[in-house]
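pasting input
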Amino acid sequence: MPELPEVETTIRALRPFLNGRIIIATHNNWANHIATPSLPELQRRIQGLSIQSLSRRGKYILIQLSKNETLIIHLRMSGHLSVVDANKPQHRHDHTFFTLDNRTELRFRDQRKFGKVYLVQNPAEILGKLGPEPLDSLFTPAIFAMQFKGRRKAIKTLLLDQRFIAGIGNIYADEALFIAGIHPQRSADSLVEHEINTLFAAIQKVLRLGLKREGASISSYRKPDGSRGNMQNAFTVFRRTGTPCHRCGNPIKRIKLGGRSTHFCPHCQR
DNA sequence: ACCGGAGCCTGTTAGC
DNA sequence: TGCTAACAGGCTCCGG
């Protein structure tokens, strides 16, 4: 759920509360949240470091700290970050806490417990395999096209592969393929040049729309302050099974592809 | 290299 | 109505 637009919306909201703060303590009540290093080592290394900047790579949140340490957080399915008064009662699903120097706390809530926290000196350890950033100015249709050669996987499945392209999840994959008019089961190497160009543009368009609408608040996604994004009101196919296609009026179809629900218009997507 | 499926979790929903 | 089972989606690991 938190995909590129949701993660980017989250860091934009957190920045004013985190930049320049000092982390004075870390608490955790769900050991599996901490991917690396061990909790005691993380607590020791992070204590007293200042927060220098927040950024994003794919669906990962990067919090650059002093002493060349980087705190990396992945929200996975149900993760949520907020900065609140340290005295505010904890939420039932709050599992990791970073106490800051101004009586506030960065809290990592995670109902499904799929989220992960990493503290590393070298972020490439975690991010090294990620594919291109879809909205980066260095990413072009020509570069995208080269990645299709010899790939026979269904295009939808490839869009979900973070090594192929970073930041896209189930929502934006389905929405981008609808905009591009491409059937999700098409083999990637069957796409001709103009289709790849169209898909490239569709990916950027739908991600920018998601950013503008501050993410899709289906199920548990909320902005850090608890309010909802409204991308869910702009869905063309996602979770619209059986309802009329906005373009042709035929019912939206749902299938399973690579174990994931996939929504598309059989008439408009070929 | 590719693919499918299990596993990690819990809240919500579909179906009997 | 009340219960159980399936489902949801991000990612990794395993076996074929």
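fyi The longest strand of chain A covers residues 51-57.
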